[in-house]
Amino acid sequence: MTRVTVWNEYRHERQEERIRQVYPNGIHVQLASFLSAAGLDTRTATLDEPEHGLTEEVLNNTDVLVWWGHVAHQEVSDEVVNRIHKRVLEGMGLVVLHSGHMSKIFIKLMGTSCDLKWREAGEKERLWVMEPSHPIAAGIGEYIDLEQEEMYGAHFDVPAPESLIFVGWFEGGNVFPSGSTYRRGSGNIFYFQPGHESYPTYYNKEIQQVIINGVNWCAPVKRDVPVYGHSEALEPIRSTVGV
Asked: Which terminus of the chain has fewer Cβ atoms in its 10 Å neighbourhood, N or C?
């Protein structure tokens, strides 16, 4: 069974009543609820726990880390970021949601600013499926309609993805690469744009299905981590030195 850790800052929900009304127990609890219902072995962690809840032991027992952050990116310790980065290179999957695009770990893995345009106007978003045969799009029709979402708009300063699965169109005219996959080292990464804290996006069944699919796609292949460095020859070498 795939072991999932859902990480959330858990700041908005405690500090703002309008957010608490949408996610009374925290975004992480809502995410974990449908991932658990899908048969995934799910736990949660939050920013204000010791080591942000992401100790060596927790990460070593995590196959896929799901990340939601927004107002406290800089409060995440570099030590924990380096710990996550190492685990991704070793094969742990990473699903980065919504404003997690500006998290330290996503920026470190992408090597760019990861910046974009944004607008919070409660506008409609239509997520078009660009790769209908991709496993992350399984069970989804031609598009997903969301009545309200925060606008994220191009240009999105990230490297060219391995796969561009969703493109979002917003009522105000902007478009955005809303669902993209990457590989870093042995780890799979899925970035998925919908999920502003003041809208009930994570209650949408199709959005839930995409995130479940994303976690399953990011799950690591069980194999040994490659060995690097000096290597002895596998076959006899006929030296030509001095000939």
From this structure: C
